[in-house]
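Private note to self, pasted from the team thread so I don't lose it. Backbone tokens:
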């Protein structure tokens, strides 16, 4: 299974080492840290992300730039970090976003039921989104 791509945008990358280490405990997550709106936007267009976390210390205009791009791309898995955020609560919020997205993708699975002429057994071909 592919790793879930998490983008963290924060002016001071080391603002919360506990948060980053908590996220890195998840074996299926790939954490990407950037400190500017420009870097976040460039990276967002370079590869698909499952969740974007905007740090509490981002300047308002930088946050608006990031949100404008994410909204333009209809990307909804955004978490705004607040002063009182607990790393475990943030991790759980990310998991909820990822699971909701997976559930939505499962709604779009196409199943083709065909008959195999060689042995007259039913076979089912499942096509997952993105394949």
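Design output:
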């Amino acid at each position: 299974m592919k790793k879930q791509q998490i983008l963290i945008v924060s002016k001071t990358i080391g603002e919360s080492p506990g948060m980053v280490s908590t996220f890195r405990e998840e074996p299926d997550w790939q954490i990407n840290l950037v400190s500017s709106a420009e870097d976040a936007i460039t990276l967002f267009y370079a590869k698909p992300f499952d969740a974007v976390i905007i740090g509490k210390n981002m300047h308002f205009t930088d946050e608006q730039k990031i949100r404008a791009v994410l909204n333009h791309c209809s990307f909804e898995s955004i978490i705004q970090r607040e002063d009182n955020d607990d790393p475990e609560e943030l991790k759980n919020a990310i998991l909820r976003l990822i699971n909701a997205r997976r559930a939505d993708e499962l709604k779009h699975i196409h199943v083709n039921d065909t008959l195999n002429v060689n042995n007259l057994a039913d076979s089912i071909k499942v096509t997952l989104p993105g394949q």
